[in-house]
Amino acid sequence: MPAVQETVERVKRIDVDQYRYGFETLIESDKAPKGLSEETVKFISEKKNEPAWMLQWRLEAYRRWLTMTEPTWARVDYPKIDFQDLYYYAAPKPKKTITSLDEIDPEILKTYEKLGIPLREVAMLEGVEPKVGEDDPARRKIAVDAVFDSVSVATTFKAELKKAGVIFMPISEAIREHPELVQKYLGSVVPTSDNFYATLNSAVFSDGSFVYVPPGVRCPMELSTYFRINERNTGQFERTLIIADKGSYVSYLEGCTAPQRDENQLHAAVVELVAHDDAEIKYSTVQNWYPGNSEGKGGIYNFVTKRGDCRGNHSKISWTQVETGSAITWKYPSCILRGDNSRGEFYSIAISNGYQQVDSGTKMIHLGKNTSSRIISKGIAAGMSQNTYRGLVTAHRKATGARNFTACDSLLIGDKCGAHTVPYIEAKNSSATFEHEATTSKISEDVLFYCVQRGLSQEEAVGLVVNGFVKDVLQQLPMEFAVEAQKLISISLEGSVG
Amino acid sequence: MALLEVKDLKVRVEEREILHGLTLTVNEGEVHAIMGPNGSGKSTLSHVIAGKPGYEVTDGQILFKGEDLLEMDPDERAAKGVFLAFQYPVEIPGVATMTFLRTALNAQRKARGESEYSTPDFLKKVREVSKSLNVPQDMLKRGVNVGFSGGEKKRNEVLQMALFEPSLCILDEMDSGLDIDALRIAADGVNALRSPKRAMVVITHYQRLLNYIVPDFVHVMSRGRVVKSGDKELALELEASGYTQFEDAA
Ligand SMILES: Nc1ncnc2c1ncn2[C@@H]1O[C@H](COP(=O)(O)OP(=O)(O)OP(=O)(O)O)[C@@H](O)[C@H]1O
Ligand SMILES: [Mg+2]
Fold first, then answer.
1. Residue B13 contacts A where some CB pair is shorter than 8 Å
2. B75 and A471: CB-CB below 8 Å?
3. Quick check: pTM over 0.90?
């Protein structure tokens, strides 16, 4: 059997066993009644002890949503979602306020342990001595916010961050504790009316992370949030809001996993980033939601709106994403380059296998003068999957001197998958310089054979070649996650547990 | 027991028979040269021994240390000591040569049930080998063969051969594209690997290489068969008279 054929066969056999995070945690939970109505929205708002303005905001979004229809322009195909057949809120019991990690259900702690996410600060500080020549990520401090189904269950290093003036807390808490900040910024980047899923999220979002970095502060550690969907038939609608005030810097990472289930689950998050003058936000995602089984059954629908506003002059927002999971991904992390000399970056690795469908890309909206953007997209399609890059680069009339560089490379493994590149480019002034490069190639039989002749297994060879293909993007990830992402890439392309 | 026994091998590629019953026996410690006109099937033979997909063996046998080689996956063959220095080494963008060497070496060791090399041990070994072959360290930081000159690619093949210490080395036209100095260095590298436990099969068009790597046997291939075998004098004879005399024999 030719090498590529063999790989394709193996890849086809990819099964749920492959998905390491597919376990379920048995805990009691507190759910909203099934279905979506004003009552559901009120229920959620009440559960969260929200002020009246927040409920009002949600209800407006809900009413708006009723008038909207699902977008159909993406190159993805799925049966119609019954929005009345979902739960919009699920919280692990008990519902009393948690003040320390010890009060968290040990089952949940165990879940995060299994996922390899340290929720105990002490364990991280006392990290084992690294061996010579080895980097030890555990010794680097990373503040974690863990979101389990609809609620945030733990946020670490709060005190230390507070000393630096950085606010990092569940958004439900921020709504109560920092209403002035939330009211000022929430919906200012992704308006409640933005799109079907963002509007839905605005009505029913239950938790997520909130970050505020004050002027001139360089956030002393990586911030990260881990999202975990556990409940059945539950949508996860998290909301993340990050504000980098003048001259500040923050690096934030989100990771996501879910148990394997036969039914599809909806995940419709909204992420808003605001960077003021001279501020920089680096946002990285390692998305590994359950992708469904080898027949395309189950998996997460990942319909996400992510947008960053480079509001100030000389501000910078950089998105890096490694997308390996989800049955369907519909996601376009974008930058509005409003401030003069602001810069937007998008680095993406999107891997699809089995019956996964990915339609992802970015939008770079150049509004200010001398704004620049850079897009590096690496799509890898295997199995029966479809992988589309969809990107928009526009320069407004006043965006003189706008510059963009786009490079989209696709790699095909086998001949039953597809890779597509859909770039939209609009320059409304003549001084804009937009460059676009795109390549599509098949994984080379000769290259794979070269590797196996030197002793690598077929799967190791594919993993190595693909990791080489995505290297430029991997380098953009914070070091400790780059290693993890590299493993994830190999695993998601493996045909058998190695 | 011979190290490698190819018996009456018939091979097809896309419905066309390329090797029509080829027999070749290589014992430990021997160096065999294979010469023959373009398209006679030399690379095909080397690919089939290494296990490249796409070739259909319709008849015959290949035994390696007495085991049926055709039953093994190519990576298994590599771990057992079969090494092929390619006529056209490929480029692997984004994969540093050093990473590649380490991954491959450790994969082979793991397959043999040996422990993996530690970082310092591995680095030490690579440094030794690359120094002896005049391969600069910064070449090892670059992507595998990416942007390497033809000669550098060939040197990288010999480097891997020296590093992996295989028991059977097949060199497919390692002399093509090498300048005279590079040829001498590479040949010295190959000679340094000659040992009573290791055999070499050197495929070449030029007798000049055989001045550096002196073979014990020379075989002439034509139209998918070995049509004549002899000692190193045969190569000189070929240089003088060419291959036409064998066309009929085939
Ligand atoms: N994949 C293939 N498909 C079709 N024909 C092939 C294929 N591979 C090899 N051949 C044919 O097999 C014959 C032998 O090729 P091979 O590469 O083994 O010759 P060679 O002796 O190595 O030649 P050279 O000295 O030019 O390297 C040639 O006629 C070639 O065209
Ligand atoms: Mg050849």
1. no
2. no
3. no
B197: containing domain: 2-246
Number of domains into which chain B is organized: 1
- 3 state SS of A263: coil
Q: Report yes or no: B104 at the A interface, CB cutoff 8 Å.
A: yes
Residue type, A70: E
ipTM of the shown complex: 0.95
Q: How far is CA A41 from CA A32, A33, A402, B179, B200, in A?
A: 9, 11, 42, 77, 76
The enclosing domain of B44 has a CATH number of 3.40.50.300
Please give the Cα distance from A376 to B20 (Å, whole number). Answer: 50
CB A488 within 8 A of CB A322: yes
CB contact, 8 Å: B195 with chain A? no
Phi, psi of A385 (to 5 degrees): -80, 160
**B54 Cα nearest atom in ligand 1:** 1
Neighbours of ion ligand 2 (CB under 5 A): B 42-43, 87
DSSP string, B172-217: ESTTTT--HHHHHHHHHHHHHT-BTTBEEEEE-S-HHHHHHS--SE
pLDDT in tens, A133-187: 334 443 456 666 766 655 565 666 777 888 899 998 889 889 999 999 999 999 9
Taking CA–CA distances from B51, the nearest residue in chain A reads A453
- Regarding the beta carbon of B204 and ligand 1, being less than 6 Å apart is answered no
What part of B 114-143 touches A (C-beta under 8 Å)? 119-120, 143
